[in-house]
Amino acid sequence: MSGREPPDFAMQRAVEVLASIYERKRPAHAPTLSPRADAPIALFNERLSLVVGNSTRRDVERELGIAYRYPSAGWYTYCLRIAGDRAFLTLFFSNAILSAAELYRPRGAQAPSLEARDCGNYRLVPGEITLGMQVLALPEYFTAIPAPSGGSYAQIFATGFPGGSALAMGNDGTIERLAIYVDASTAPAALPE
């Protein structure tokens, strides 16, 4: 054994579903995710930098406290106030190391009514990409990929970076969701809890 635990089932299944949607909707000559960002992309604010494959659950909880378990087992959600609106910061850890981070405004009736707290404005860096900005302002290393019909987002832009990938998703030219995911092949070994 390599000392690594097998990937979490929910996370593995989510990746499989997204990949199958992409494969079904991909044109015959689909664009690749290049150019890629030269450096890791972080979900950042002045108090906490979230870097997949690097940030630890202990560091996150030291800054943000204990999270609400949502939308499913293994995901940890914080409700933030960003530009006067509620936003969810949802994190997934594998072996106590950040594997995925998503920032979005909750839209569904099933979203919990958590109290929003002021934690600063999170954004993807480099690039200073924020919720509510126009998709035309995305850096050139983001590539448009086909959005699934009937999905929540009509526009999806992706890029790779050393150790992971990043997505910016939106509707009507405005970014509504930001996400970063670790590349499973470069995931670090377990950290002690």
Distance between the termini: 20 Å
Average predicted local confidence, pLDDT:
81
Unreliable spans = 1-7, 25-34, 188-193
> Structural class, from helix and strand content?
mainly beta
Secondary-structure element string:
HEEHEEEEEEEEE
Major β-sheet profile:
8 strands, antiparallel
Q: Report Rg.
A: 16 Å
Secondary structure blueprint with pairings:
Elements: H1 9-25, E1 42-44, E2 49-50, H2 57-64, E3 68-69, E4 75-82, E5 85-94, E6 97-104, E7 123-125, E8 143-145, E9 155-161, E10 164-171, E11 174-182
Antiparallel strand pairs: 1-2, 1-7, 3-4, 4-5, 5-6, 6-11, 8-9, 9-10, 10-11
Could you describe the 3D structure shown?
- With 193 residues, the chain is mainly beta.
- The chain is built from 2 helices and 11 strands; from the N terminus they run αββαβββββββββ.
- The strands form 2 sheets. It has an 8-stranded antiparallel beta sheet, with no helix packed on it. A 3-stranded antiparallel beta sheet has the order 2-1-7, with no helix packed on it.
- The radius of gyration is 16 Å and the shape is globular.
